Amino acid sequence: MRYGFIVPGGGVHDRVAMAVEAEAAGWDGIFLWEGVYHLDAWACLAAMAVKTERIRLGTMLTPLPRRLPWEVAAQAATVDQLSNGRVILAVGLGVIEPEHLGDVNQERDRKIRAEQLDEALAVLDGLWSGEAFDFDGKHFKLHCPPGPKPVQQPRIPVWVVGRWPAPKSMRRAARWDGLVPEVPKPDGDGFAAVQADDVRGMLAFVTEHRDEATAAHPYDVVVDGQTRGDDPEATAQRLRDLYEAGCTWWLEADWSGTEESVWSRLRQGPPR
């Protein structure tokens, strides 16, 4: 299993410094979230790319329906070239929480946002081929001459949020390169922690619904949460269970911590 660290905030120079520290501490990836009006994740990742050598760089996550897909494709391909092939793109519908994340003139209807997500993913895939690409969809239309290719082929790995056990959401995730699972609580109030049994069920679904082309490539299952860096044994069994069930990435995520506690956990390294 690989271990990533989600940076919850901080200034632009702090974020770049965190990437350097994360690489030194043994983390396998570092990830930034994308807000409505926030430090630009891709500019920060570009700076991280030139200051690091090994660590994977990505978003967690990019709310693709409210972005122009050709711009995201160009940003991701640029950072992939800068980093010599270390980018991961995680995408989802994006949450709408004006009181916390800000608000813009974006589609509210979940079904339409799902359509936008599917079309945007197809646009990314087509543009990253480096060949001339035409797309005539319901929400996006473009005609592009050949453009920059990512270092990674056949494409930059794309992780997609899948709401378990919603079949449409899970089928979308199965078509790409990794799953970022959401498990709604029974009462509908938020999401539950992903358990090993959930991972087994999800992987069985994904295996059944992957097509022949994608089935030839590895598939990631990405779970986030918090662990205690000063007491690895406290969470060792949970991580072991997730790994044995098929989880490939654990992302350390502390959205409520102070700047001091976030830096401390980063420097303690992954819960191996």
TrEMBL record:
Q: Which Pfam families match?
A: Bac_luciferase
Q: Keywords, A to Z?
A: Flavoprotein, FMN, Monooxygenase, Oxidoreductase, Transferase
A single GO molecular function, which one?
alkanesulfonate monooxygenase activity
Q: From the UniProt annotation, give the residues forming the signal peptide.
A: none
Q: Where is the Luciferase-like domain?
A: 11-210
Q: Which InterPro entries match?
A: Luciferase-like_dom, Luciferase-like_sf, SsuD_RutA_monooxygenase
Any Gene Ontology biological process: alkanesulfonate catabolic process
Q: What is this protein called?
A: Hydride transferase 1
